[in-house]
Write a structure and sequence with these properties.
Elements lengths: L2 H7 L3 E3 L13 H11 L4 E6 L10 H8 L3 E6 L15 H10 L5 E3 L8 H18 L1
Parallel strand pairs: 1-2, 2-3, 3-4
Helix pairs in contact: 3-4
């Protein structure tokens, strides 16, 4: 296991669920959490990704609340891979759950379509997400 090596170096390994069309190994947050729990190391945790959660059957805020103690990072983007605010993903429940639970980690934008350009993607996404956060 690489977990002891990560522990010695102060590194955290994050197990990330991917959509079923990209993997047949870890397709849900529950499966990622199962791996984290089996490894049983403070250096191994999980993350939540709005895009990758497309196959989840429960509301995303419910999943975040259930597995919050093991979530160390969050990726945000639209379920089609576009940047935040260009699709129909409702970020409000996810952001509200993170705020309510006192999440202090990073939230990173993970867009897959860079056609609009990096600066525009970042500016529009930050503006959009901040407008939601201000309403919470």
């Amino acid at each position: 296991s690489v977990a002891p090596h990560a522990e010695q170096r102060g590194v955290t390994i994050l197990v990330e669920a991917l959509p079923r069309n990209q993997t047949d190994v870890i397709g849900t947050l529950a499966e990622a959490v199962e791996v984290v729990r089996r490894v049983n190391s403070p250096a191994v945790a999980t993350m939540f990704d709005t895009h990758n959660a497309v196959d989840e059957t429960e509301p995303h805020d419910v999943l975040i609340e259930r597995y919050f103690p093991l979530i160390r990072h969050v990726h945000v983007n639209e379920t089609d891979g576009g940047h935040c605010g260009t699709g129909d993903y409702d970020f409000r429940p996810v952001l509200a759950a993170l705020k309510r639970l006192g999440y202090q980690g990073w939230i990173s934008l993970e867009a897959f379509d860079f056609t609009p350009g990096a600066e525009r993607i970042a500016t529009e996404s930050i503006r959009y997400l901040n407008s939601i956060i201000e309403e919470l």
